[in-house]
Amino acid sequence: MADGIQVFDLNAWFGSRQVLKNIGIHAPANGVTALIGPSGCGKSTFVRCLNRMHEVVPGARSTGQVLLNGEDLYGPGVDPVMVRRRIGMVFQKPNPFPTMSVFDNVAAGVRLGGVRNKDTLYEVVERALRQAALWDEVKDELHKSGSSPSGGQQQRLCIARAVAVQPEVLLMDEPCSALDPIATAKIEELILDLKKDLTIIIVTHNMQQAARVSEWTGFFLMGELIEFGVTRDLFTAPREKKTEDYITGRFG
Amino acid sequence: MTPLKRRAIVNRLMNFLAGTAALLVLLPLVLVLGFLVYQGGSSLNLEFFTHMPKPVGEAGGGMANAIVGTLILIALACCVGLPIGILGGLYLAESRDPRLPWVVRFLADVLNGVPSIVIGIFAYTLVVLPMRRFSALAGGLALGVIMIPIVLRTTEEIVRLVPASLREAGLALGLPNWKVTVRIVLVTARAGIVTGVMVAIARIAGETAPLLFTAFGNRFWHSGLDQPVAALALQVFAYAISPFDDWHRQAWAGALVLISMVFLVSLAARLATRGIQRQTR
């Protein structure tokens, strides 16, 4: 029985421009899979295909198969809204809801999903904030605006918001690119902690980061998956010349 | 003269001109307010707010019925203007249809430019003629129609300003599109929409022409929404063209009350949105 996320023959377009060509990977459950590659190579589009956010953009479409624990997410009758509830996402720039408090931000997914009970909501928020290692820093400021914490805290707030709905998978699209090294280190620590409960796929520009946090790494170039394999092997003994050139900084 | 010196002089001159222009903006408002206080202030007392108009020749009396009437008309207008304006504005901002939003936007701008008396005739034909009497409903409809394009366009502009990243964050949480729009996008745009609504209310509060043959005016308490109702603007108009000195003074006082109401509404809008904006930052 296959577990985690399996992708077969994924193609994606913006209008008539093809941005992903026949991508296939397997991101095992409770592991961290990193995706690296130069800007514009399709990494972000790829993760957005996994939770069906790609199709939200006007003119965007995709074909192929994405299996979550063996279940086809692009199958007939599959509601993209339900897919997104099972696959959470953290974006490049922290994007907390500015008109909501810290508490309401974390509670948003569950509350707008229909849960009204105050005690339940409080439990959900505390659990999510603890998971995101943010509870001790904000527990006295839950009523403050979601945009009042620092940038690094805001990103962990967004992680808490995403894990509050208890997804099976967490997609992270360059979650540290707007953060300083200290905040980045905290997020990386958090990733290693979170993988006990979920499957994580992280897009990053930072190869050291990929090496530090992931078990599996995929290298994208111009919309193609050049190489996919165990992180240590990919960085120490790449099979492809292009991968070697990229990780040694010879191009890109 | 060195070029540097000349630049400094030009800079000062331009600063002075721009500053003077900014002050000139205030001048009409200050003059109008000052003149109103000078002319109407003396007739303004508690009785003016709590009593009915008195017949000609009797001293005193107030415009309580007109103040309440204006509030009723504003409330009725909001019932018409707010739902259509806000929902329509949301549609314009969110729709991906290439044609319909363009048409709606264009027609809303045309409607915004239609003289208000023409909108009065519209309400007259639509409500007054079939009902065979002037009524608060007709007046409210006329004012509501005037509100629509203002609320529509401000709502659209403000909703467009909500960052796409917030919408994506909502969708990525597994929320259906309509919930993201109502509970996240609309809530984030709340402050700006409130400002737009307040501007629209301030605009209609002083409208006189569309009320002449719809709400009609009433010297007494109104006796139902299907009956003629008094309005401050109408009362001021009627009193100002009358031949009686006493009524003239009352008209000044009425105008002062009207402009104060508009002023307070604008101020309330500013304060309300400032609180939210501070929170947003």
Describe the structure.
The complex is a heterodimer of chains A (252) and B (281). Chain A is 36% helix and 25% strand. Chain A is α/β, with parallel strands linked by helices and 252 residues long. Chain A has a domain at 5-100 and 170-247: P-loop containing nucleotide triphosphate hydrolases (Rossmann fold, 3-Layer(aba) Sandwich). In chain A, the strands form 2 sheets. Chain A has a 6-stranded mixed beta sheet with strand order 6-7-8-3-9-10, sandwiched between helices. Chain A has a 4-stranded antiparallel beta sheet with strand order 2-1-4-5, covered by helices on one side. In chain A, helix 7 links the parallel strand 7 (169-173) and strand 8. In chain A, helix 6 runs parallel beside helix 7 (181-194). Chain A is globular. Chain B is mainly alpha-helical and 281 residues long. Chain B has a domain at 67-233: Orthogonal Bundle (MetI-like fold). Chain B has 11 helices and no strands. Chain B has helices at residues 3-40, 46-50, 64-94, 100-113, 116-131, 136-161, 164-172, 177-188, 190-205, 232-240, 245-280. The longest helix of chain B is centred in the N-terminal third of the chain and has 38 residues, at 3-40.
**Biggest sheet descriptor of chain A:** 6 strands, mixed
The span between the termini of chain A is: 38 Å
Structural class of chain A: alpha/beta
Largest interface: A-B, 31 and 23 residues
Low-confidence stretches of chain B: none
Fourth-level CATH superfamily of the domain at 67-233 in chain B: MetI-like
Number of helical runs of chain B?
Answer: 11
Number of helices of chain A: 10
- From the 3D coordinates, which CATH architecture of the domain at 5-100 and 170-247 in chain A would you assign? 3-Layer(aba) Sandwich
Report the average pLDDT across residues of chain B: 89
CATH topology of the domain at 67-233 in chain B: MetI-like fold
What percentage of residues of chain B falls in helices of 4 or more residues?
over 70%
